[in-house]
Amino acid sequence: MEKVLIVLAHPNYEASNSNRALLEALPKDVQLTIHNIYEAYPDGQIDVEREQELLLDHDRIIIQFPTQWFNVPSLLKLWLDEVLTYGWAFGVEQDALVGKKIGIVTTTGGVKESYVKDSHYGFTVEEFLLPVIATIKYIDANYIGFVALNNAYGPTEQEVSEAVKQYVELLKK
User: Fold this and answer.
1) 3-class DSSP state of 20
2) What are the residue boundaries of the Flavodoxin-like fold domain, all occurrences included (predicted)?
3) Who's near 74: CB < 8 A, 6+ residues apart?
């Protein structure tokens, strides 16, 4: 059975109904490690060696976060910068994560219809995720896709259910 690491980057997970709903609905027969980096590093001082060991110890990695100001939360950006280092994740003869399956799960405050080309925002959710997707591809990991739960402040049961189904599929890719 594959070991799955969920790198959870939510600055206020306890208050997040949507992110908790997604995680709590995941099947119990999957070998999951949920690693909340805001809980692990409240001071922002990331233990790079520990994080790299966690990544190496798992077959599949899901990066889960709320999209904030059309971007990743600040600690996740710092985590990406500090953990995916030159000489370890990329660079001369270093390829720690080559072929590792990595996906993205995000929540957004806007409704689904807000994330289309001709909307107020003018961009799709996937376009907002492009820096993370490019990072995954740059380190030669296997990008397996993304799931977005929109309307995170008040999703319908159907929206949550659909996102959970997509999340479970992401765990199988």
Assistant:
1) helix
2) 3-170
3) 11
